Amino acid sequence: MNVLRRIEAAIFLGAIFTVASCKNSQNEKENLMPRTNRLINETSPYLLQHAHNPVDWYPWGNEALERAKTENKPILVSIGYSACHWCHVMERESFEIDSVAKIMNENFICIKVDREERPDIDQIYMASVQAITGQGGWPLNVFLTPDCEPFYGGTYFPPTKMYGRPSWTDVLHSISNYWKQNPNEAKQQANELKIHIEKISKIQQTQGKLTPTLLDSAYEHSAKHFDTIHGGFGMPPKFPHTMELMTLLRFYSRTKNEGALKIVEFTLQKMANGGIYDQLGGGFARYSTDEKWLVPHFEKMLYDNALLSRTYLEAFQTTKNPFYKQVAEEIFAYILEKMTSKEGGFFSAEDADSEGEEGKFYVWTKKETEEVLNKKEAEIFNGFYDVTEHGNFENGKSILNIQFSFEDYAKTNKLSTAELSQILKTCKQKLYAIREKRTKPGLDDKIIVSWNGMMLYSFVQGYNIFQNKIYLETAKKNANFILAKMTQKSKSTLKTYLFRTHKDGKSHLNAYLEDYSIFGLALVELYSATGETKWLVEAEKLAKTMIDEFWDNDEKGFFFVGKNHEKLIVRTKDFYDNATPSGNSVALDFLLRLSTLTDNKTYKKNAAETLESIVLVAEKYPGSFGYVLLTTDFAIENPKEIVILGNENKEFLKALYSDFYPNKVVVLANNFTKDDEKIVPLLEGRTKIDGKTTAFVCKNFVCKLPVTDVKDFEKALKN
Fold it and tell me: Are 626 and 635 in contact (CB under 8 A)?
């Protein structure tokens, strides 16, 4: 873009003229008097972190946008989230500095956005920055015209020129001067970017046919990018790629291709033994900065742990390896202890930093462990978890990780595996108790519907597989909390409207497609685990709202925001799966499962039309459509419809969930009414045989003979 090149040239020239006047500004003694800006009235932890900056921050809203138009000033939108390390760095280096704030306040209308509260805003402006720079990330700093159209932006900018990046003050001066001198050029650039965003938000829809070849191509893609030495995919930074792993488990279940299972197992074991996993407290960090999974970006996100616990559960069902069960249970324990509110909501994240230092809470020196453990314990623990004199991290500190097999390490140290297990358990308890006395990373305690839905889903599966009633109680409490505190019900239309976020007793902001689809899917699974019809009724209300608010009658698929949402510069659609599945991906899964249970043809039609319109693109770029592939597997398979009648069903459920049957819907019932049959047609005409617990295994509403013996049930499941 020619206009963009002129803006970049202006920044370069601006740097020449401003460096002399700004070079000492970062060392100035700043005003330490207490102060607040408009963010003080927000509930978002990220926005509140910036509430005492000298920058005259606004939250996104009419007050700021109207002022920009009135004063004809460009808007600076700075986007991040509370657990973002480099967001904190830029705040310390720039946003807390009076002299920098003065430049920002005089030349721009400054708006802070929490990307987790407002993914709609983040999505639009992230696309513009990726178009400008070829990359994205957070903090995201975007300059807009007074009409909210982006004309320049980037991610992190340092206080002085370094890393090949101009300084933040250079950028501010240059963009301000450019806007004053070339407003028409800036608007031209903004218009080009807007057209670009509109274009990429519409996936090229081509009618395709659902066939197993889509899953074959996904396996080939995964095998090609698989790291055979360290596990995972691609080059660092390395992310868990949970949806890709879950797709491979389904591919293995269908084909018994050992190569697919090897990729999954090797990756899951390497990750759980690495520094990305909290060896003392459970739970995974967001990603690894290196190829070995050793050095994580230490923040812990709810969504990662929801998806990873689900992946380890599915791996346990597939392989029966108790290691995967242990990891899943440790994640659940971490969530229950650290990330669950008294009311039942799940918190969003734990920060990477404590006391201004990334990872400080999690790392150890050899001296520190030796002060807590006795000599034998320290020798065993430090050897097993790679705590050395020189360390494997910064300043002689060590990130706990495992480099030996448990059996080999026991043999080397002349211990039985039981003895080694007990020693390590004791050591971990002692060190965890000491770690709990350290200054803890910041907690983002806002509650987001879609992320809660992912964790709710995983707890339901944990209950199904392990029959741990605590997991079911947790799932129910979470569902009840969201339905009670984060919904608005429409009596006239029998629909339910969701809020996006909840904190400090306040729920607000319109929910997005992902909130409806992910929470709705979790309620379907909760119904299947309990047989309580109320959960399915609530799921249907969400489905009706989702279709009415988000469905695109013209081009099919669902919009990211509802029709009654605030009007932004574009109304986007999101099909691509990233760290979390897209709203469209899960909507397909939600509607297909719901239609199988309720025989609602509208749900099935909407899902089928969307899936068939993107299948060819998904086949071409399988790495970007992980959850779409899961849904495709369900759609191709023609899922099993399983009905179990009777309260004495424990052995039947054990048989059902001890193996991996991903493509199924489950109905549990005992005494049911005609109204229940109307809600779930799969119940019609079902009766117990001789008063015994009776199971029906069906496909496409065609059933095998009902069985009352668990072994016969197992045979029916496998055939």
Answer: no
Contact by Cβ (8 Å): 231, 274: no
Residue-wise pLDDT for 436-465, tens only, equals 999 999 999 999 999 999 999 999 999 999
- Report the SS3 class of residue 311: helix
pLDDT level of residue 207 (50, 70, 90 thresholds): low
Please tell me the predicted confidence (pLDDT) of residue 492. 65
Paired tokens of 245: 């792993």
What whole-number distance in Å separates Cα of residue 719 and Cα of residue 716?
Answer: 5
Q: Please tell me if the domain spanning 2-200 has the same topology as the one spanning 638-719.
A: yes
What are 398-411's pLDDT values in tens digits? Answer: 999 999 999 999 99
How do residues 653-698 score in pLDDT, each as one tens digit? Answer: 999 999 999 999 999 999 888 888 999 999 998 999 999 999 999 9
Average pLDDT of every residue of the chain: 91
CATH code for residues 2-200 = 3.40.30.10
Kindly report the CATH class assigned to 209-361+438-587+594-624. Answer: mainly alpha
Category of 693 on φ-ψ map: left (φ > 0), alpha (ψ -120 to 50) or beta? beta
Q: How many CB atoms lie within 10 A of CB 491?
A: 6
DSSP state of 158: -
Asked if 697 and 713 touch (Cβ cutoff 8 Å), the reply is: yes
Give per-residue pLDDT as tens, 589-628: 999 999 999 999 999 999 988 888 888 888 888 888 999 9
Q: What is the pLDDT of residue 393?
A: 95
Q: Any idea which residue has 């000599």 for tokens? A: 375
Contact 148, 569 (CB under 8 A): yes
Give one DSSP letter per residue of 589-640, joined into a string: HHHHHHHHHH--HHHHHHHHHHHHHHHHHHHH-GGG-HHHHHHHHHHHH--E
- From the number of C-beta atoms within 10 Å of its C-beta (0-12, 13-18, 19+), residue 51 rates as middle
Exposure string (b/e) for 135-145, b if CB count within 10 Å is 16 or more?
A: ebebbbbbbbb
Please report the pLDDT score of residue 19 as a whole number.
37
Q: Which residue has the tokens 């020129």?
A: 161
First to last CA, the chain: 59
Q: Report the 3 state secondary structure along 322-355.
A: HHHHHHHHHHHHHHHHHCECCCCCECCEECCEEC
Most distant CA atoms of the chain, gap in Å? 92
Phi, psi torsion values for 65, nearest 5 degrees? -70, -35
Contact at 8 Å (CB) between 153 and 214?
no
Six token digits for residue 41: 């009235």
Measured between alpha carbons, how far is 666 from 530 in angstroms, rounded to an integer?
10
Burial (CB < 10 A; 0-12, 13-18, 19+), residue 600, is middle
How far apart are the C-alpha atoms of 47 and 504, rounded to whole Å? 14
Across 366-377, average pLDDT: 96
pLDDT at residue 17 above 60? Answer: no
Omega of the bond leading into 139 within 30 degrees of 0 (cis): yes
The topology (CATH level 3) of 638-719 is Glutaredoxin (3.40.30)
Task: Please state the domain extents for the chain.
Answer: 2-200, 209-361+438-587+594-624, 638-719
pLDDT at 638: 81
